[in-house]
Amino acid sequence: RSQIRQIRMNAQMTQHVLADYLGVSVKTVEAWERGRTHPTGPACRLLSLLSNNQTQVLPFISVE
Question: How far apart are CA 33 and CA 63, in angstroms?
């Protein structure tokens, strides 16, 4: 599994929810997970927060 997919799964998000959260398309998330492209800028920082289980600092996340 890719690191981004693992982060997404740990955060209990679908690709669609993660894409909305990061402000990117589902196709972009798919490309990241397959290693074809890599996140940069704000998306990279938000993924870092998710990977460190720091969603409590991001109260606007809704994964339901």
Answer: 19
